[in-house]
Amino acid sequence: MSLPYPTREEIARLSARMLLEIKAVDFNAKQPFTYASGKKGPTYVDCRRIISFPRVRQTLLDFLAATIMRDAGFEAFDNIAGGETAGIPFAAMVAERLGLPMSYVRKKPKGYGRNARIEGVMTEGQRVLLVEDLTTDGGSKLSFVDAIRETGASCAHTAVIFYYGIFPETTQRLADHGVSLHHLCTWWDVLNEARESGAFDDATLTEVQTFLSDPKGWQAANG
Fold first, then answer.
1. What angle do CA 8, 11, 17 make, to 5 degrees?
2. CA–CA separation, 162 vs 15, rounded Å?
3. Is 157 helix (H, G, I), strand (E, B) or coil?
4. 198 in any annotated domain
5. Which residue in 19, 59, 149, 196 is deepest, having the highest Cβ count within 10 Å?
6. 151 a known binding residue?
7. Domain extent for 105
8. Domain-located, residue 223
9. Is residue 154 marked as binding?
10. What digits encode the pLDDT tens for the residues 69-103?
């Protein structure tokens, strides 16, 4: 019996459309964006915008909950943890949908009180799902996963709304740490939807495709 959820392909297409509609993603080939790393690129994503659009927010989180249950299992978790800070609201909404406790993980101990990285209640033996807004190369997830495991809980899954999908080592990096990645859409889905909707001119879309195909090469050629 098939599950009453949209296919992965339809979820990816609709998720990409919603991110474009609320301008959570943008393309600009003439004035590339500067990333936190200091490097530049013609693509930009800000999943924090999602929380300000109720209909988009509800649909994307329904999609995320469905993806988690379909891919990981219906009774696979005991606790939903959000990564500080962007993952916190999404973890709360996933926890509500799955009827589970919610906690969150600090990037580093707060330096006073219990000096803990875990806020909320997380206990030894719990199976924890780490929820974040997005992932690029998976690096930041590993620190959160390690903090969860230090409590005696297990963490073998992370779920995000947006996965860059342009760094081939990401899923292997997570897998080597014993973590499976679940996501709704990637830059390739956004690019396809942008072409279908005519959201950007052909020259911009061509430049974005060049970047997505070889990010390091594009950055080396464009400074």
1. 140
2. 9
3. strand
4. yes
5. 19
6. no
7. 8-216
8. no
9. no
10. 999 999 999 999 999 999 999 999 999 999 999 99
